[in-house]
Amino acid sequence: xxxxxxxxxxxxxxLDGRRPDELRPLKISAGVLKRADGSCYLELxxxxxxxxxxxxxxxxxxxxxxATKAIVRYRxxxxxxxxxxxxxxxxxxxxxxxxxxxxxxxxPVVIKERHPRLAIDVFVEVLQAxxxxxxxxxxxxxxxxxxxxxxxxxxxASCAVxxxxxxxxxxxxxxEDNYGQADMPIAVIPTTGEITLLQMDGHLTxxxxxxxxxxxxxxxxxxxxxxxxxLAKCYQMKDDGxxxxxx
Length: 247
Ligand code: ADP
What we know:
alpha+beta
């Protein structure tokens, strides 16, 4: 693990040179996996994540079927090589919790009534972790769901806000996440402003919560634009008969 820095903000800039309200560099590519119904590869700062969506498809085991609507399943997994110290492979408490809250983040947008008895499976694989993997995963899963043609009311966009050196900062990097005073990831339906995930570690005053929340919402709007651009680019390539990445 990196050592705790003495200061997180020097002359108004963060350790990686960002202003407090700046996102890390973001790259999104849709439709990158040939065998998935929908997919997305996303980089956010040091994070590298792959999302794959399968479905709507038969539910196994069958007793999990819902006769009135589709079920949405979400598996978040960190590869053992995704962090500095090798992570023990397989699910643990953290990944089970993240899978649950991320699945819940999509419940209000997926139009499940369209596909009774079927399942929509979302897999998020973190290939390289650098703080904010749940938010990166949600952003990628959202694009992968759209790429799979799953009926949704909107995309979901996600980012975190936190506090270091008594200053609110958007989209925390590793040191800020590990040693900062607060970390609050949110996910939002950008078209309505509805919140579908909100978690918080640490402490924020009521005013900081309000200001930080606004910063995170603005971050989500920027991410939403990048998600739409990636999907438009992917559809354009398909229309042009171009090959998808990975073919
Ligand atoms: P998030 O990645 O959503 O911010 P956490 O706050 O739980 O979730 O984790 C923060 C960061 O700590 C991760 O992005 C990753 O870089 C690191 N981390 C998480 N779990 C492990 C682990 N088992 N081993 C090493 N580093 C980890």
